[in-house]
């Protein structure tokens, strides 16, 4: 079962000692990965603890490889709490039309 994490919790983890990021509403603890990140630790610290779409946009814009996306799964710790998501998908309801 995936843990649901409020944005407030993520925002507290934006430092060297605790670095959490949000990508596509999924929360990742990248604290241990910072030193290995090819772009440097500062890239992760710049987006840590921020709400979407900051990390999401940055992650997709840079064009990460399939290997990078696979590696990311290792750091998944939960999903962002729904009411905290600023970019949640819009759900449209179909409108019915009754002709008499």
TrEMBL record:
PROSITE patterns: CYTOCHROME_B5_1, CYTOCHROME_B5_2. One of its GO terms (molecular function) is metal ion binding. It comes from the Eukaryota. SMART domains: Cyt-b5. GO terms for cellular component: membrane. Pfam families: Cyt-b5. Keywords: Heme, Iron, Metal-binding. Residues 2-81 form the Cytochrome b5 heme-binding domain. The keyword Nucleotide-binding does not apply. InterPro entries: Cyt_B5-like_heme/steroid-bd, Cyt_B5-like_heme/steroid_sf, Cyt_B5_heme-BS, Cytochrome_b5. Belongs to the cytochrome b5 family. This is Cytochrome b5 isoform X1. It comes from Lingula anatina (Brachiopod). The gene is LOC106171549.
């Amino acid at each position: 079962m995936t843990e649901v994490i409020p944005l407030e919790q993520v925002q507290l983890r934006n430092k060297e000692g605790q670095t959490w990021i949000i990508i596509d509403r999924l929360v990742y603890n990248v604290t241990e990965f910072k030193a290995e990140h090819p772009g440097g630790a500062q890239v992760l610290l710049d987006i840590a603890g921020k709400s979407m779409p900051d990390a999401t946009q940055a992650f997709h814009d840079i064009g990460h490889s399939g290997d990078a996306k696979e590696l990311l799964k290792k750091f998944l710790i939960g999903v962002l709490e729904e009411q905290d998501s600023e970019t949640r998908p819009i759900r449209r309801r179909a409108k019915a039309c009754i002709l008499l």
